[in-house]
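Much of our argument rests on the idea that a fold can be written as discrete symbols. In the encoding step, the backbone of a single protein was reduced to a row of integers, each denoting a local shape. We regard such an encoding as a compact summary of how the chain folds. The record that follows shows the chain in one-letter code together with its fold in token form:
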Amino acid sequence: MSYAYIALHIEANLARLTLNRPDVHNAFDDRMITELLDALDVVANHAEIRLLVLASNGKNFSAGADLAWMRAMASKNYADNCADAAQLSLLMQRLDELPQPTIALVRGAAFGGAVGLLACCDIVLAEASASFCLSEVKIGLIPAVISPYVMRAMGHRQARRYMLSAERFSAETALAIGLVHELTADLDGRLEQLQQLLVANSPAAVKAAKRLALAIDQQPLNDATRQHTVTEIAQIRVSAEGQEGLTAFLEKRTPAWIKG
């Protein structure tokens, strides 16, 4: 698929997915959602990719939904709007469940649905000047599709406040409430450091750890949850990379997945 609104660059074990509509502050519409879904499918099925970076071109990360797109959807019926929203929901799910770790780099503003994209990433780095807003109620809408991910990232109390007030909040606030993991003046430099950390880990174990985190999130601490964790650790211990990792540790050598 050829991309008009995004760019996907794959080099060695790193994929960089860039929102590329700087003239409209990387606002997204149905075309961008389709392109993002295609790119995520490429990454998910690429055996060599160990990390996905979600970035943006231009001054702002993303202004959220494109105004022309919203205007067009307002003229369509309920069924059309359900189908349209389902695509955005699928995008959030695919990003959230991508097998590889994901790191988002935030410059400028991240509004509306863009906050949902960030909430679906494993690590979010932002510049101190970045700003955020769940702006939907200002124009008579609600952040419905992104709400499960945003509430998980920010917590119920904080998400509820910003969903209702639609006030802009700072990068410092985003850090304090859990939407952002780190503030840095050097996004690419910090990205390189994290990339080195992540690719030094077992590829299979990283994917399994991500699946585990998603599977037990908000699950009750009961016999089924405990059995799930027992099964997961047993499976990884007897796997090829689990055996290699333990053996390399005991033999004080570099594991085979680290090439060098």
Observations:
- The CA atoms of residues 51 and 100 lie 5 Å apart.
- The radius of gyration is 19 Å.
